[in-house]
Amino acid sequence: MHDEDAVDRDPFEFSQPLRELAETNIEQARAAYAQFVGAMTQATDLWLNAMPQNDLTAGLRVVEGQVVRFGKQNVEAALNLASDLAKATSLQEVLDLQTTYAQTQLHVFRYQAHELARLVAESGRRRL
What we know:
This protein has helices at about 5-10, 15-50, 55-85, 90-125. The protein has one domain (about 15-125). The protein is an all-alpha fold.
């Protein structure tokens, strides 16, 4: 049996049911990550609250808050990429999405590293 539609179809194209499954999995990953971050933040807050309140713990809170924000941004960007990849209709679109993501995240990571270094240095100056 010869299926003409299969011959005309891009070999890298995903079927609609597979796309829908991917989207469902991505949404489940988003929910699981949100729960994880909530638990991690709660545990870190408990730990910081158990420590004596001083400039060091205040600095740790600032750094911890920024690390959590950056982590959320990075995971959200990765999940958005996964969602976009699930919707891609060609290999070229997949490559374009991955290239744009990699270029953007390189700039984001550079900024985040600079910002965290600044916050840690600032926190260290407060202790002195």
